[in-house]
Amino acid sequence: MDWLNDWIKDLFLQVPCAPPKRQDAQNLLAELIKVGQKDDFLSERPGAGFNSQCRNLRAIQVGLQLHNLGGLALMEWARFKIKRKLKAQMVGHLDYAWDGVGDWKA
Predict the structure, then answer these.
(1) Average confidence (pLDDT) per 10 residues, the chain, 106 residues
(2) Read out DSSP for the chain?
(3) Angle (CA) 67 21 78, round 5°
(4) What is the pTM of this model?
C-alpha cells in the first residue's frame, strides 16, 4: 500500500515554495532528474564533474539552489520526486550527494 500512498502524495503534493518561484523549482527538478539519468549522483572515482568525495557537482549546486528557493522542505519535495522518477537506489545516492548541502543530513 506504500505505492498507493506515494501515488496519491505525488498527485496532490504541491511545490513547497512561493508561487513565483515554483517554475524555477520545477526547472531545477527537471535538471536534477537529467543529472541522475545521465551521470548518477555518485561516482566510483572523483573527477569529470565529481568532487573528491565522488559526489556530483551539479547535483550539489542544484540542491543548494533548491535550498535557497524553499529550504529543506523544497529539497525533500525534490527527493520525493526523484524517488518516483528514477531507480530506488538513486535516492540514496542523492541523499549522500546532498549531505551537508543547506540543512540536508544523510
Answers:
(1) 55 75 95 97 96 98 97 95 91 97 89
(2) -HHHHHHHHHHHPPPSS-GGGHHHHHHHHHHHHHHHHHT-SB-SSS-SSB-TTSBBHHHHHHHHHHHHHHHHHHHHHHHHHHHHHS-HHHHHHHHHHHTTSTT---
(3) 45
(4) 0.86
* Residue 3 identity: W
- In single-letter form, the type of residue at position 30 comes to A
- Amino acid at residue number 99: D
**Phi/psi-derived region of residue 47, left when phi > 0, alpha when psi is between -120 and 50, beta in every other case:** left
- Joined together, the cell numbers standing for residue 6 give 506515494
